[in-house]
């Protein structure tokens, strides 16, 4: 893949026009992703939620508020495409499951779009793997038995990746049960992100 910014622009246009899973998406296709060749940080989450689907703005919901809190980053910095790329495992909102929570990302999406997008995002120095779906896809054998174990072993994933729990408010109990995350990992996360963006 070349460093030509037009290559990435074309890829993003193709991804945003993707309709591969249209028949399986109850709310239709609206791929939500962003980035530029100069982006130093890549955030890989799960899939857009209902509010993100409605607005077309990634992490534009309470989960995004918590993620920005972890990063000590305001919205202007977070949405600076020249520095931060955002590509979820599933580009479109998969809909809400009957028992609550969203369905998993569509399985067709990441194998189709992540390899070429990652190859074109040539400036990325650090990738945040937010949640178990991103960790399973990117870490392979380095992934531990549980999400908690994977996040606790975050040092083993550096320097390329840094695994995080999903910042959903449904995970508030997890955060209370694992105080080491905010005491130890969040400060390290902020340092690593600053180094990737400013180094």
Automatic annotation (TrEMBL):
It comes from the Bacteria. Residues 32-190 form the Uracil-DNA glycosylase-like domain. It holds the Pfam family UDG. SUPFAM superfamilies: Uracil-DNA glycosylase-like. PANTHER family: URACIL-DNA GLYCOSYLASE SUPERFAMILY PROTEIN. This is Uracil-DNA glycosylase family protein. It comes from Azospirillum isscasi.
């Amino acid at each position: 893949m070349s460093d030509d910014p037009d290559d990435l622009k074309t890829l993003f246009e193709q991804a945003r026009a993707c309709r591969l899973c249209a028949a399986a998406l109850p709310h239709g296709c609206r791929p939500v992703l962003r980035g530029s060749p100069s982006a130093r940080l890549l955030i890989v989450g799960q899939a857009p939620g209902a509010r993100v689907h409605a607005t077309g703005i990634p992490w534009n919901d309470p989960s995004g508020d918590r993620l920005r809190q972890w990063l000590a980053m305001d919205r202007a910095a977070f949405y600076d495409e020249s520095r931060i790329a955002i590509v979820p495992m599933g580009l479109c909102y998969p809909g809400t499951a009957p028992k609550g929570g969203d369905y998993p990302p569509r399985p067709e999406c990441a194998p189709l779009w992540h390899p070429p997008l990652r190859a074109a995002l040539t400036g990325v120095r650090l990738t945040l793997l937010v949640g178990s779906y991103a960790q399973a896809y990117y870490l392979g054998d380095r992934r531990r038995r549980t999400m908690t174990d994977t996040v606790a072993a975050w040092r083993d994933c550096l320097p390329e990746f840094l695994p995080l729990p999903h910042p959903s408010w449904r995970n508030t109990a997890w955060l209370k049960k694992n105080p080491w995350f905010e005491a130890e990992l969040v400060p390290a996360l902020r340092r690593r992100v600053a180094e990737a963006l400013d180094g």
